[in-house]
Every structure is written in structure tokens, then in C-alpha cells.
Amino acid sequence: MKIIVCIKQVPGTNEVKMDPETNTIIRENVPAIINPFDTYAIEEAVRIKEKYGAEVFGISMGIPAAAEMMREAVSLKIDKAVLLTDRKFAGSDTLATSYALSKGVEKIGGYDLIICGKQATDGDTAQVGPSLAKTLGIAYATNISKIIEIKKDAMRCMKITDDGYEEIEIKLPALITVVKEINMPRLPSIKSIKKAKKAEIEIVTFGDIDADEERTGLKGSPTQVRKTFVPVHEVNSVEIKGSPGEKAEKLAEILLSIEV
Ligand SMILES: Cc1cc2nc3c(=O)[nH]c(=O)nc-3n(C[C@H](O)[C@H](O)[C@H](O)COP(=O)(O)OP(=O)(O)OC[C@H]3O[C@@H](n4cnc5c(N)ncnc54)[C@H](O)[C@@H]3O)c2cc1C
What we know:
α2 (66-75) packs across α5 (190-197) and α3 (94-108) crosses α4 (128-136). A hairpin with a 3-residue loop joins β7 (139-150) and β8. By secondary structure, the protein is an alpha/beta fold. It has a single domain (2-215), classed as Rossmann fold. It has helices at 36-52, 66-75, 94-108, 128-136, 190-197, 244-257, and strands at residues 2-6, 9-11, 32-34, 55-61, 80-84, 113-117, 139-150, 154-160, 165-171, 174-178, 201-204. It has a 9-stranded mixed β-sheet, sandwiched between helices. The chain contains 6 helices and 11 strands. It starts with a strand and ends with a helix. Helices cover 28% and strands 24% of the residues. It is globular. The site of flavin-adenine dinucleotide has 36 residues, from α1, β4, α3, β6 and α4.
């Protein structure tokens, strides 16, 4: 079977800076890491490979420097790494990102399963997985916490819902997004780090995929970020002292004084 893991590079810092002109994240010269949720996606793909036999591809859309991150993914035992990178992809919102990724996925071709992280720790929308599945026209399931069984043309999984867990069966090819309960990602061995240093990262540019320019980058992004800011948190706290009766009386007084 062929598995494709979507891997996003995210800032490895809380001090994210925004470009005031374009309202996009400044990614150059910022320490970058594999999106933490994607490490669970990589691990799950590698576990499937070890159990059932599979070829695991990693795909990312990002800046050229993301090639280093893809090397780290190779050290975590993916077999092949593909990086979509081109100025024409810059400024993509989630729709344009999913479209570009779908073209990269189609270029890899012949896949049975696509695994994404639950969400990215910077954009946080959790939209790319479902949107990618929709663009490719395949089934998808989000928040998968366990893969129970993979059969020839379907797989059984456990999905986390608001009320608990749900066992589902999904027809292949499919896309799933995974939560951190699914596994404990392994650490790379020294041997695999060394091997990854020499690994070839396939660079795919706009010209290499059969993509519509109107659907990529800023041009293909219906979402416009008008303003970005850090919210101001104002917390007014009051400490109520006294016996339980006095505290209750004071609390009732405060609550009754609040204008609604
Ligand atoms: C108007 C606008 C302009 C933007 N401009 C830029 C920009 O110039 N540069 C920029 O970097 N971002 C930009 N963004 C942010 C960009 O849209 C998101 O980073 C991206 O679409 C992914 O969304 P997300 O971070 O919410 O991922 P989520 O949907 O939360 O990610 C879920 C999963 O999808 C997969 N995934 C998501 N993104 C990628 C990816 N790129 N490659 C591989 N797998 C992925 C991963 O498996 C991830 O765990 C812009 C957003 C908007 C709205």
C-alpha cells in the first residue's frame, strides 16, 4: 500500500512575527519544526508500514528551507519526501494550500491512504485535511485515535467525538487526521539521522504540476487577513474572605450588582 503523510513546517517559537504589509507569518530566519501533530501522522504511517508493508511518502508545501524539516521526517522513517515550493504558492490560504497539496498528491499518485495531523499549531484551522480530501474527491475522517484494522479496500478506526469514541469503517483510498492519543512518536536513531542527511528531497515547483494559477497563492485565496493582533486580556479579580456564609453573601452581592 502507498501512504502519503502531510507534513507542515511551523515556527518552533511562540514569538511569531507578522508581515504588516501582507498580514502573513514571517517564516524566514525563524526556528522551524515539524508541526507536532504531524509527528503522530508520520509515526502512524510508519507503524502501518511495519505491520502491513507500505511505502510512505511525506509531502509538504512550504518555503525552500522546509527541505531540512523533510530530512527530519526521513530520519523518522518515511521513505520519500516531496516538497512543493514556488513563489506562486506564497500567501496561500487553506483552500489554496489544499489545492496545491492535491496536485502534489496526484503527482505522487496511486495512494491508498493520506494521513494529516489534527491541526497545525500556527494556523490552527484544522481545515486542510478535510479540504484536501474534498479536492481529491475521497472519503475522510477526522480526529482518529486508533487504527483497528486495515483491509483490502477499507479500514476500521476509532474516532474521538464530543461525547466519547466512535468506531467507524472508511472506504479506501481515504484521508484521516490523527490526534495525539493515537501513538507515541519514536525518536530518530543516530543511524537514521545520518542516512537522512544524504536523502534526496524531491523539489516540486509550480511548473512540475498541472495546476491552475488562479487557484494557488494569494490569487487563489478567497480568505483575506485584514488585521492581525495579540488579544489584550483584562482580568479583574476579587478575593472574597470570611466564613462560608459571609462569602456567599458577598458573592451574591457582587453577582446582583453586575449589569447585564
Ligand atoms: C489570506 C491568507 C494568507 C496566508 N498567507 C500565508 C503565507 O504567505 N505563508 C504561509 O506559510 N501561510 C500563509 N497562510 C496560512 C496558511 O493558509 C495556512 O498555514 C495553511 O493553509 C494551513 O492551514 P493551517 O495552518 O490552519 O493548517 P491546518 O488545517 O490546521 O492543518 C491540518 C493538517 O494539514 C496538513 N497541512 C497543513 N498545511 C500544510 C502544508 N503547507 N503542507 C503540508 N501539510 C499541511 C498537516 O498535516 C496539518 O497537521 C495564509 C492564510 C491566509 C488566510
